[in-house]
Amino acid sequence: MLDSRTAYRRRWGALAVLIICLLVIVADNTILNVALRTLSDPEAGVGASQSELAWAINSYTLVFAGLLFTFGVLGDRWGRRRLLVCGLVVFGASSAASAYSGSPEQLILARAAMGLGASMVMPQTLSIITHVFPPEQRGRAIGIWAGSVGLALAIGPTAGGLLLVNFWWGSIFLINVPFVLLGLALVFLLIPESRDPDPGRPDVLGVLLSVPGLVLLIYGIITAGERASLTDVDVYGALVAGAALIGLFLLHESRTPDPSLDVRFFREPRFSVAMAIIMVLFFSMAGIIFFLSFYWQSVRGFTPFVAGMLVLPSAVGQMIMAPLSPTLVRWAGPRRVAAAGVLVACGSFLFFSQLSQDTPVPLILVVFFLQAAAMAGVLTPATDAIMSAVPPERAGAASAVQNTVRQVATAMGVATLGAVLSTRYRAEVGPALDAFAEGEGASRVGSEELHAAGESIEGTLAVARSVGEGGRQLVAPAKEAFMSGLHLAALISLGISLLGLVVVLVWMPREAGRHQPAEGQQAVAGGDRREEETSG
Predict the structure, then answer these.
(1) d(Cα 326, Cα 385) in Å, to the nearest integer?
(2) pLDDT by residue (tens digit) across 262-293?
């Protein structure tokens, strides 16, 4: 058991361990995107259908987002290091199970178990940083933590492409195991145990309302995006039931004497405005970034490995700006830094609304770099504001709420902007498909294949490839229809981001605030700093 002085001296080592944990979780989720085609192959993969591939991704997201808040609260109560260790064990074991899955169904279940492990790990990383670092160093630590997400975004697609070239598909999951073992070994050496010293009575009803509420809400959002429709009973039923349960949860939390989520936090502008900005940015960014992968591969014709390499400028931008943003906040204040970042993000959406099939790749990469740097410049001080606005003993709950908001916003962005893109795509490609059905495809393509061709650019190009030379007439209209949908989605992202800019300019505080550490922690940190200065 580490005492408080030892924990303080080893705080940067503890941060390195937390970054290892974060890298494994984030990188693995991006690795899967480059392996989807391989997994759909009956020989080289598991023969997964399009729907099964979608649920290999969604099962992880559903469990992860649904349980983030619960495990953040339990970490405050039971011990953050304990939950971190449990999460790493579950994540490592389920990664091995994913690697050796013999069917799409097994892969989906194993991915859900990975989401369970990740939901235990993620909220503990930020809450441990809040506990270990004094307020004056916390912003820098959170900046490095956020920058590691950019590193994970770079590692994921690149490593996934290299592994798929040299090994079987299961290697993209099995690679997690040695890193999990390394993280487990270092956790006990460098990370102290911490928990809320006075957690109060367990808020059982709050947890029982939050889990199904979040799961139903995320399920409804994901399914609505997949089907581009809200008319199915299971879709709108899940959305209504999820929203109702979340509403009941918030009502209960406002009245119970020992809440899991103290809704009074939202009265603090630093907390509420930062949450709003995070939601706006992740909503706007998620859909565009997701569909740009189709732009690279389906429109420009790059391989998955090359498409993964093209993510690197975004990762570099985030890695550079995230650690620097706390310094910028000290110089210019959080409002100016956040406003500048959101404004640059708006500029990137305007650029994507004019993107063409032959836009120079270097120009796109420069925009990627600036966009990611701007996002990191906003998100790092926003995250620091959230964690500084709550008492350190409630850090797990605050971390969980922040991560849950990110997950919900990401799912909403992909679903909403995906529905917009799909609707525009069907309208634009329809005449070309009708002409094809009356001519070349009349006797060679069935009605079901033609229907699938009208749903996405990949569906249209698949039909074009199956017909051969006669299908070439579909390629250009498919690419033009996709670009039209992408332009409309980018304009919607621009509008949402402009609303976020208004929120920043009107409500974000000019100066950063700090929540003071507990008296004992302050004394230990101050004493150790004096010792460091003396020894220096």
Answers:
(1) 11
(2) 788 888 877 888 888 888 888 888 777 777 87
- Compute CA 328 distance to the chain's CA centroid, rounded to the nearest angstrom: 25
Please list, in sequence order, all residues whose beta carbon lies within 8 angstroms of the beta carbon of residue 359, skipping any fewer than 6 positions away. none
Q: For the packed helices 204-227 and 395-438, what is the interaxial angle rounded to 10 degrees?
A: 20
67 with 93: CB under 8 angstroms? no
Position 35, amino acid: A
Q: Whole-angstrom Cα distance, residue 180 to residue 208?
A: 30
Q: What is the mean pLDDT of residues 18-46?
A: 76
* Cα(215)–Cα(275) distance, integer angstroms: 20
Tokens of 351: 């650029």
Distance (Å, rounded) from C-alpha 85 to C-alpha 93?
12
Chain length of the chain:
536
Return the DSSP state at 454: T
Q: Give the residue among 80, 59, 36, 41 at the shortest CA–CA distance from 397.
A: 80
Alpha helices (runs of H) in 228-311, residue ranges in sequence order: 233-255, 269-294, 304-309
SS3 content of the chain, % helix, strand, coil (to 5): 85, 0, 15
DSSP 515: P
From CA 78, how far away is CA 58, in angstroms rounded?
Answer: 29
Confirm if 191 and 81 have CB atoms less than 8 A apart: yes
Q: By the 8 A CB rule, do 270 and 135 touch?
A: no
The model's pLDDT over 474-511, given as tens digits with 9 standing for 90+, comes to: 888 889 999 999 999 999 999 999 998 998 888 877 77
Report which residue type is found at 477: P
Q: Calculate ∠ Cα 370-375-377, nearest 5°.
A: 95
